[in-house]
């Protein structure tokens, strides 16, 4: 589908930076764009790509992003114009603001207007500094242009009593940590680890393993379960895959300090056999949002500057002789 004006403009603001940019939803991927539009306004911790280049993204409180199928994809997002806005199956709103190195297909929904590109570039550098070095959180506010901001986390519905109770508690926990760092992760990054996880009292390896387990648990395991449920995988298979995918990493993360996540997981597994497809989808959707929130905060808190002296060797760079 070609780009065409939709008459729907949204503002992406970073109040701490005093920067606001306007994006027009341009008619591409209408289901994704509608889901984004209907979710507004919301706020989120702003993140920056750590391996892909000049790209901003944040977790969007939109459960349907996990399973909506794009009408069209850009085969390689490196080729997208700077300022392109994407919705991602990883539950992200992303903005390309410069050079990308990671080749991957992506689903565009709009563009930042040209006159706002200098502000976007300024925001990109400040957000990189926030994630990589200063650790001062920067919040993004996404709203319909010309309207006031706000924030809400959806609470999904379930008929089963255990599922409904679990969803409510996960929703409450998500609201508590969405815009403020989760205390369990803050403690972990400060070296407070009640279980003693970290051989010989080290902390960095534990942080690395927590990051390495949290991201795929949200993106792949729970995101995959949502998509499988929507695509009518038989319930017996869904239950079997759930037990294969979520228990072991959640137990390990609980050992490392994310005890609430492990508690939620145990409650989910305990009621799993009672859930029909709709209740299953609600539970995994609510948990996916919570875990993706934890993942975003872990990426923000991680001490990336620990590796500041490690730099890539370019093929054309001179080899220094000792």
Automatic annotation (TrEMBL):
Domain of life: Bacteria
Pfam name, any one: Cucumopine_C
Gene3D superfamilies in the cross-refs: 2.40.100.20
Domain Cucumopine synthase C-terminal helical bundle, chain residue ranges per copy: 164-301
Alphabetized InterPro entries for the sequence: Cucumopine_C
Protein name: Cucumopine synthase C-terminal helical bundle domain-containing protein
Source organism of the structure: Streptomyces kanamyceticus
